[in-house]
Amino acid sequence: MNDIQFAKEFIIKHWVDGSGNTIEPIKLSTFSGKFKVIFCFQSWCPGCHTVGFPNLKKMVTALDQNPNIAFIAIQTVFEGFEENTYEKMLEMQKKYELNIPFGHDAGEDDKSTSNFMQQFSTGGTPWFILIDQKDEILFSDFHINVDAAIELLKNIE
Predict the structure, then answer these.
(1) How far apart are CA 45 and CA 131, in angstroms?
(2) Prior bond to 126 cis, omega within 30?
């Protein structure tokens, strides 16, 4: 029995482009045919700052010249709604100098569990998801071997 899991379409209302400008909601289909690296965080998460964002920055820096890879960061709020705000998401994008799309997902009413977390069964933050060009989820976990991921992704065409 093969347990292939395919990614679901995003349900996230608030997005900014790589420059921090508000944009129309991004969908999974926006990146059709590309390999997708998704990083889930909360602005107040210590592990996101010590491990998650540095790993994401390392991956983006190593692979940003590959047009077949899309990087996406999503603030998946499931607690601390008064701290993990849209404004804090913008601060994280600037702080880590990540010129990639960022989404803010605090659920349907902006104060309930993140839609993305529910759809993708993430266990918290920091969390990485790797989705191939056919939208198959290849990896979804807290811990990523960033150097091995970079080596794997260097061969993406």
Answers:
(1) 24
(2) yes
Q: Which residues are within 8 A (CB) of 129 and not within 5 positions of it... i.e. 6 or more apart?
A: 7, 36, 37, 38, 40, 120, 122, 137, 139, 140
| pTM listed for this prediction | 0.95
| Size of the chain, expressed as the number of residues it contains | 157
**What would the pLDDT profile of 63-110 be if each residue is shown by its tens digit?**
999 999 999 999 999 999 999 999 999 999 999 999 999 999 999 887
- C-alpha span between 16 and 18 (Å, rounded): 7
In angstroms, rounded to a whole number, what is the distance separating the alpha carbons of residues 141 and 157?
A: 24
Handedness of CA 137, 141, 146, 147 (dihedral sign): negative
